[in-house]
Amino acid sequence: MAKRGSKKSAKKARVDHLERDIAREIGRFAIIVTQDKSGGLTSLRVPVDDLVDTMSRLGHKFVGFNDNPRHRADLRGAPKFSGILGPMYGGSASEPWRYESTRAYGELSR
């Protein structure tokens, strides 16, 4: 039976590998938009290869990769996180993915 640590290491290696592939393919950045307590919107531009670590620091747990066949091809394979909406289409295949808190999404969708 595999040790628990080795299972986590294998998952981390797979995530790292997929993040590098994603960074090469869509290359560059994701935009994270949240709303602070005063109601103002905050936006972060994050390199895709740092996305899982950045989201973790913001309190959003990595939960897998988007594999919804109804989503645009350029969004499939993008990481998904708990407590945040996304990945969302950025306007063109070369634009960054967007991730938004529900409060930010509500504000931006008015």
Description of the structure:
The structure is a single chain. The chain is globular. The chain has a four-stranded mixed beta sheet. Strands 3-4 form a two-stranded antiparallel ribbon. Strand 1 and strand 2 form a beta hairpin. The model has no long low-confidence stretch (mean pLDDT 79). The protein has 110 residues and is of the alpha+beta class. It has one domain. 33% of the residues lie in helices and 26% in strands. The protein has three helices and six strands.
Based on secondary structure, the structural category is: alpha+beta
Give the strand order of the largest sheet, numbering strands 1, 2, ... along the chain: 2-1-6-5
**Nearest-integer average pLDDT:** 79
User: Count of helices?
Assistant: 3
**Overall shape:** globular
Spatial separation of the terminal alpha carbons: 53 Å
Helical proportion, percent range: 25-40%
